[in-house]
Amino acid sequence: MDLAKRRAAMDEAMAARGDWPERSPWLREAVAALPRDVFAPDRLWRWDGQQYTAADRHADAESWAAVLYAGPDEAAVTQVTGGLASSSISAPGVVVDMLDSLRLEPGQRVWDIGGGQGWNAALAAWRAGPGRVVSTEIDAGLADFARRRLADSGLEVEVLTGDATTTGPGGRRFDRVIATYAVERVPWTWVEACRPGGRIVYPWGRLGHVALTVADNGSSASGWVQGLAQFMADRTGPVPPTAGWAGYTAVRGSGPAVFERRIDRDLAPLEGDWNLRFALRVAVPDAMVTTGRDEDGINAWVHDGRSSWASFSAVGDGTTVLHQGGERRIGDALMTAWTVWEGLDRPEPYDFGITVTPDRQWVWLNDPGVDGPRWPIGDTAPAASR
């Protein structure tokens, strides 16, 4: 196993794609000084199409390294609970993108939330300096692992065990807050822990990460979507709906469809247009969408993890048959959101932003300070203007 070669190959792959951010050249240096293998446990997990199987460093070092350095967009699963991935070392490209969004400067105080194995905290500490980073991890075993690896790397980082969703690190204030697990709504604890003018970077739900700036009076935080990524969900929040065919069939059941109609729309964009997929995620946040292709075109299966479902079956002439059932017509909600997105001139994810206050949160489009499209977070209402 030649880790030096794998590190170099990853560095070159990221350089070829332009992943190393020009405004944060320190990140490339930090990753070289603190490579991800230093913070990886001896057992990783890979998906074989049906289940997670172990890749053990001592039994098969090459397979272990291949999982860890699979590519810029590939996370390495480090923990499996009940057959599901419950912790990982995030994909290198995403880690770099989020730390670049943090706009971290030497000497700033950082609260790293969801510390995992400690790699993100290590990179932040490389930039911020000794004693400037506090990391919180809810899993005591992971927290102990991170403490040891950080100390072995000569980094002075305080690692706390606790639930950062509800409790801040002893009332301390930070210049920067960064989370590495996904939340749908930002805990107000995070805003309170960040000084006015400070930045909060976090993964928003199933898709995308956001950078908020805390208002001068501390009464709100607002900022833009920074990129697309998927992260582990908050362990203390509601269990996310199961994706894929298994999730759909569990909600669909065996009963007949309540509603059926033909749609004059080709679903091909659902397969690969991530601008559309993100817009649908904004407008119908609980909709889990799975696509598949046959000789007639793109088909889609949608569910909300509770009771509502929809199936879109391509006919072959550019139209689609929609069947749906459950508490609400989730298929119609998606079609409405798609039409609204087109009417808004097909905005990209980077055209959206989020504002957080103590009592409500919402997504906005293009400008947080004007009346325009707003989508409340925590509600399934379609896009509206106010």
TrEMBL record:
InterPro entries linked: PCMT, SAM-dependent_MTases_sf
Location relative to the cell: Cytoplasm
* Keyword entries, A-Z: Cytoplasm, Methyltransferase, S-adenosyl-L-methionine, Transferase
Family annotation (CDD domains):
AdoMet_MTases (cd02440)
A Gene Ontology MF term for this entry? methyltransferase activity
Top EC group: transferase
Its primary localisation, in coarse terms, equals cytoplasm
Mention one GO biological process in which this protein takes part, according to its record: methylation
EC numbers on record: 2.1.1.77
Q: Which family does it belong to?
A: Belongs to the methyltransferase superfamily. L-isoaspartyl/D-aspartyl protein methyltransferase family.
Q: PANTHER family from the entry?
A: PROTEIN-L-ISOASPARTATE O-METHYLTRANSFERASE, PROTEIN-L-ISOASPARTATE(D-ASPARTATE) O-METHYLTRANSFERASE
Its recorded name reads Protein-L-isoaspartate O-methyltransferase
The organism named in the record is Kitasatospora purpeofusca
Source lineage:
Bacteria, Bacillati, Actinomycetota, Actinomycetes, Kitasatosporales
